[in-house]
């Protein structure tokens, strides 16, 4: 068995570059060469494919988790498009409010343009300062 020093697992662009450099090796060999393995007490090298594949996904900037609802199930992802509903309302879904970190009770000023709607969040601290002045 060849004795080589275990390297720290590569990440980000360095990981992507190394995987491309390794060309036709198997995915297990690529994972090992990129540092995604452990050595057991018996001296056996075990490849950690899950960590390797997750690191590749992260390096590519792919968002798999998305935003999940409070009950742990994934909901719809934001498409950044909305349609006027049959009752003439526009509904901004929870995917957007969660992404912005909004809480129930947050207020906005609405500015209407010719073909756009602009929302400006009203600062609650500003409101309380005006109320006490």
Tell me what you see in this structure.
The chain is α+β, with helices and mostly antiparallel strands and 133 residues long. Among the domains are: 12-60, no CATH class; 95-132, no CATH class. It is 34% helix and 12% strand. The protein has a two-stranded antiparallel ribbon. A hairpin with a 4-residue loop joins strand 3 (108-112) and strand 4 (117-121). The radius of gyration is 25 Å and the shape is elongated. The model is unreliable at 67-73 (pLDDT under 50). It comes from Aliterella atlantica CENA595. One of its GO terms (cellular component) is protein-DNA complex. GO terms for molecular function: DNA-binding transcription repressor activity; transcription cis-regulatory region binding. It holds the Pfam family AbrB-like.
Strand arrangement, largest sheet? 1-2
Q: Uncertain runs with pLDDT below 50, 5 residues or more?
A: 67-73
Mean pLDDT rating: 79
Shape: elongated
Strand content: 5-15%
Number of strands: 4
> For the CA atoms, what is the radius of gyration?
25 Å
Please report the number of helical segments: 5
Largest sheet: 2 strands, antiparallel
- Terminal CA distance reads 78 Å
* Percent in helix: 25-40%
Order of SSEs: HHEEHHEEH
- Supply the helix-strand structural class: alpha+beta
Short characterization:
The chain has 133 residues and is of the alpha+beta class. It has 5 helices and 4 strands; from the N terminus they run ααββααββα. A hairpin with a 5-residue loop joins β1 and β2.
Give me some keywords for this one.
single chain; 133 residues; alpha+beta; two-stranded antiparallel sheet; two-stranded antiparallel ribbon; 5 helices; elongated
